[in-house]
Structure formats: structure tokens, C-alpha cells
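Entry type: protein chain
Record version: 2
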Amino acid sequence: MKKKRNDLNASSIPLVDNLVERLCHPLSLDTVWRRSVQGEPMPSLPILSEVLERLRAAIFPGYFGAPDVRPESIRYHLAANLDSIWRMLSEQVVRGLCFSCAGQDRSCASCENEGRQAVLAFMDRLPEIRRLLAGDAKAAYEGDPAATSPGEAIFCYPSMQAMFHHRIAHELYKLKVPLIPRMIAEMAHSKTGIDIHPGATIGEEFFIDHGTGVVIGETCIIGNNCRLYQGVTLGALSFPKSSDGTLTKGILRHPILCDNVTVYAGATILGRITVGKGAVIGGNVWVTSDVPEKARVTQEKPLA
């Protein structure tokens, strides 16, 4: 029996020619075609993934990366790893800058210098990122009766994976690195179901219990020792538009949570409102106005 071939036959060629013509038509193509600047390629998700794994090994030695790291060899491992991180991340940040300045009158040398300086500044912040993540692991251990140690949280908890990505993305965001912080944030989003915009400012000892479905918007400010549960949304109440009908960018539109706030599962907090220190927001409530210190917001009891 003759094996059936799947390649194009003569009768298919006109269809393919027509399809190519339609897909290459400017009305279709120009809306999605990314024209590179002097052939500069896009940032690479696989390479960024490797950078993050190397950063994870640098921040949490023994948990990730080489399993046999010992005190007497850690300096060697760390120095080699940091050198690789520097080279790989610099290339990706430069690509991100080239992507963002497409069509602008900027030289590639300017992007390269700016990118390398940003990565140097970022790497100088690694000890502080480690300190913050150690605090997040402590909060997970102390906040979850099921946790047996901070190390278990570091190795297993989706909250820690999301915060690892966020602490890194947020530092790059503050350095005005384009595109790369959002890519890093979306890597964690796809793996954990926790969606944290890299612009969100999150204080010390932060914990998201369970985590799936949590959304934290770009201009959120979260204080120290706050805790969220699954399905919480810290979002915008409305989206004002400019005179041309496009959404206004850069406005402060997300909530502020002061220190020691707890938000239970399914709660939705919208707009530039303030939830006062020590307040507790109950499950499945809708909050659009300021909440006083130490207040408790819950659903009303159903009518008898």
C-alpha cells in the first residue's frame, strides 16, 4: 500500500498563493509586523528562563542550581554564576531597549550602554532582593500552619515563586528597563496563576496563601506583613480615556494596603483607595472606598 503524502500538490498551490498574498497585504501585515532595529533580535524567553534559574541558584544556594554547593566552594560557584547572569541578562536588556525604541532616533550604542548600566545597578541590588525574599519565606512559614519550615516555602510554595519573579522584575522596572520586567512577571503568572504587575510596590514579609487567581495591579502599594488569599483582586475601578478615546496611561489607579492587612479569598478591592493598618477584608466582598485602621469588612448577613 502506497504511503499517503502530506506535502502540497498542484491543486493546493493556487490556494497557498492566495493565502500568502492576503497575509502579506499591508492592511493585514502592518498591524502585527515587528520591524527590527538594524536587525536586532527580540528578547529570548528561553534565555531569560535560564537567567532566572541562575538568579534563583545565586539567591537560594543549595535549594536550586548545583546540589553540592559547600561553604568552601560557594565563592567559586557564585562568581561563575554571576558572570553568566551579567552577560546573558545584559544582552536581553539591550534587546528590550532596542525593541522599545523602534522608530526613534537612537543609536544602538546608546541602548547597549544604557542596558549594561541598568544590569550593573540591578545586580548591586541582589543582596537586598535576597533579604526581602528571606522575609517572604519567613512570612509563609509563620502564616501557614501546614508549612514545616521557611525552606519548604522557598522550595515548594507558588507564593515564593511569584515573589521571586516579582522582586527581580520590580527592580528592573524601577530602573526603567522596558519589556523584560513584564516578560519575567508573565513567566510566574503562567506557572502559578498569580498575576503581579512588575510596577507594584510590595513591602516586607509578604505572603499569598494558595495564590491561584490573585491579581495585583501596576500602581498598587502594599505595606509590610500583609497577607492575601486565593482569588483576591487589587485592581482599578475605572479606566479614564484621553480626548482621542485611548486609555490614559500612568495614573494612580490601584489600591494602597497599609501594614498588617489581611485580605481573604475572592475579595475585590478597586480604585485608588486606602485600606488602613491592621484591617481585615473578608472573603468575596467588593470594596471601592477607604477602609479605616483595624476595620473588619465582611458580607452582610443574609436576610432571614
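Comment: The CA atoms of residues 251 and 269 lie 17 Å apart.
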